[in-house]
Amino acid sequence: MSHERALILVDVQPDFMAGGPLACHDGEAVVAGINAAMNSGRYGHIVATQDWHPAGHLSFAERHPGKAPFDTMMLHGECHTLWPAHCVQGTPGAAIHPGIDQRAIDVIIRKGTHPEIDSYSAFRNNTGPDGQRRSTGLAGWLEARGVREVYLCGLARDVCVLWSAEDSRYLGFQTHVLWSLTRPVTPESDQAIKTRLQAGGITVTDRD
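Structure (tokenized):
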């Protein structure tokens, strides 16, 4: 039943597209297919997430002298990748991509808003200074509407889509990744990511 299914658009934002500071491989290619999925009638609920960082966010390499984008370092007790500055609040690159039909979106979840905590997953922040991963509120929103199945699309499949899918499964939702409607930061990771998703009980499919 469609009311038990939700489609989640993960971070379909210009900064992750061609010309953006953190462009995913062929990221622009997902837009048309995501619009078709939103308008297919298969989903009772449609959610979009936005990376929405304050300037000088902890995850930005520029925040850490001597570090460059894609270096790693320990943050709050865990190894994290440092990123180019991206999706800064209020900038054009942080908007939902203008090619997405926003009329179909029921709610937008903004994540990564705390200057000292990153948030890859649509469902939970990364580990914070207190050692906890705090909820974004999405799981409760879905549960209140009777959602049992979550379908994920968007960017990037090897970071935010991956973390969102794993959290979705952990929180008890039947979880599916619409593989053809996602793109990675780098395609070299594709097989490892697909294997990891499937090993975690997550369906990887090209059918919405």
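The two ends are 14 Å apart (CA to CA). Residues 17 and 27 are 5 Å apart (CA to CA).
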